[in-house]
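Entry: Phosphoribosylamine--glycine ligase
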Amino acid sequence: MKVLIIGGGGREHAIAWKVSQSPKVDKLYCAPGNAGIAQCAECVDIPVIEYEALADFALSNKIDLTIVGPDDPLADGIVDVFEKKGLRIFGPRKNAAIIESSKVFSKNLMKKYNIPTAAYETFDQADKAIEYLKTRDFPIVVKADGLALGKGVIICNDFDQAVSAVKAIMEDKQFGLAGSQVVIEEFITGPEVSVLAFCDGTHIIPMASAQDHKRAFDNDQGPNTGGMGTFSPSPFYTEQIHEYCQKYIYQPTMAAMKAEGRDFVGILFVGLMLTKDGPKVLEYNARFGDPEAQVVLPRLKNDLIDVIEACIEGRLDKVNLSFEDNAAVCVILASDGYPLSYEKGFEIEGLDNFTDKEDYYVFHAASKKENDKILTNGGRVLGVTAIGKTLKEARSKAYEAADNIHFKNKYMRKDIGKAIQ
């Protein structure tokens, strides 16, 4: 098979690394890719938003399967574009990707089909949202409706903070068109767990659980980011909780989307809060998580291509999904100043320490190659993943590895997975 992966971050590197292991694949492309992805795929200089150009590339190069990594192309309907040209592509169509691209849609879906989630109201006018805030208890959560690179969720401790959040989203357009509506949601507490699941439109099979660290600084301080590190499995996600989620969240979500005429084929990412009243859905995403993919895919025993083909062909119920009995921890090496302002273009040293080492994976999130040197090229630069028998062992190995990689202005959280030791 010839396979094309769309995207150029750490998630896409993890997908490319896993796909490259399939005996079914003899040629792998990635558009646009990065310096790390180039080690296992041929990078193609086409931006992820140029859907027609990507489809034309797939046609002219006789691509058998395209896998979409990021959220924006899915929300904009890249799957529909490819399918109209008779191309095989893995990911939800635009009318199903709305489960991520509109928080108003997903919250209303959960309310309609009795899927457990936090109480909420939605608003398309700032003044009405502010009036509503006068009646609420705090803390409270204000969310931009649309896609905002994982940064459109603001936890507000008092009325003034909440008003500022509403104005930043709806009036100042801090997140652009994503802020044309807001969701104001009750603040719920408990361990936060990420569960990615394969879906074929009818059936859903969850992968191993993971836990992300969204805040920029240690002890969950600072602004939200795309994710500063993650680990798998979550010790809080017990078999009992899994059975509850399967019965009351995962399968009902698939059935709800089908009932709405929005059959979901692809990866459904369910962000859960394990509250004292039981698991509740914080949000849905319509693709692999980043950096969750960097800890879940290295633990997956199955050939990823086999599972993806089963999803596309509607026979996921015939798949026996299996994961290694181990643990993985991923530490993000970022450019100091991320997610606000940062410099790039600095040489990355120490990568050759991990070329042939088992149980260590360095997934490139934002890198480029110039004059035979690998340079930083964004906010989140690398995801350093290590495997261990236990989370404690994996965490120790991940930090040992991270300390052996150097670039100017390198920054990382020091507490990824620390709370579970």
